[in-house]
Design the sequence.
């Protein structure tokens, strides 16, 4: 059970403004600058990918570090973590089933199905942690993003298995 130390007044306009500045502005600027820097980005994909992954790793590290510093392991017991993991698995399974069978029912190609399955199940820590930092007091952010951190790890493991399975199917289909 999570308890906060008193009410936290949320400045809704300020929170929306902060989220827009931290998440949407870089997205829009990046897309608008594509004609100017697109060729450089294409030539330097390795550097861009490493930078992208490193920034996400840093966001996760900072969130996890803050959670540990705030005493997350004294606030959440092993049973609660297990319950969060089980709920995360159930939610991921529901989303994946809907994405797989929905894309097939709608008649998408196998390539589109794969895209829908992987993109439709992503819940990004890179977006969730900054939003939580804006919307909630620092003392509770770690506890609040713990389910997101667990879901993300479970999603990565499950989707890695699914990607290997899709690759085997594709290889077998090409050999036929």
Sequence:
């Amino acid at each position: 059970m999570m308890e906060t130390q008193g009410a936290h007044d949320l400045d809704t306009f300020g929170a929306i403004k902060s989220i827009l500045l931290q998440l949407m502005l870089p997205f829009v600027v990046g897309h608008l600058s594509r004609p100017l820097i697109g060729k450089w980005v294409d030539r330097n994909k390795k550097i861009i990918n490493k930078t992208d992954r490193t920034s996400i790793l840093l966001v996760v590290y900072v969130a996890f570090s803050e959670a540990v510093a705030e005493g997350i392991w004294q606030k959440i017991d092993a049973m609660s973590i297990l319950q969060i993991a089980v709920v995360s698995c159930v939610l991921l399974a529901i989303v994946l089933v809907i994405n797989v069978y929905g894309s097939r029912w709608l008649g998408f190609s196998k390539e589109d199905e794969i895209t829908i399955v992987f993109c439709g199940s992503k819940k990004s820590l890179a977006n969730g942690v900054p939003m939580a930092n804006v919307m909630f007091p620092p003392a509770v952010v770690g506890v609040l993003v713990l389910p997101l951190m667990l879901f993300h790890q479970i999603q990565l493991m499950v989707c890695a298995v699914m990607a290997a399975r899709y690759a085997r199917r594709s290889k077998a289909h090409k050999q036929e």
Notes: Confidence is low (pLDDT under 50) at residues 1-8.
